[in-house]
Amino acid sequence: MPAVDKPLSDLLTYQSVSPCPADFDAYWERGLQDNICPPSTQFAAYNAIQAPKEKLVYPDHGHEGLPMNGEANFQFMMQL
Question: CB within 8 A of 77, min separation 6: which ones?
Answer without folding.
Answer: none
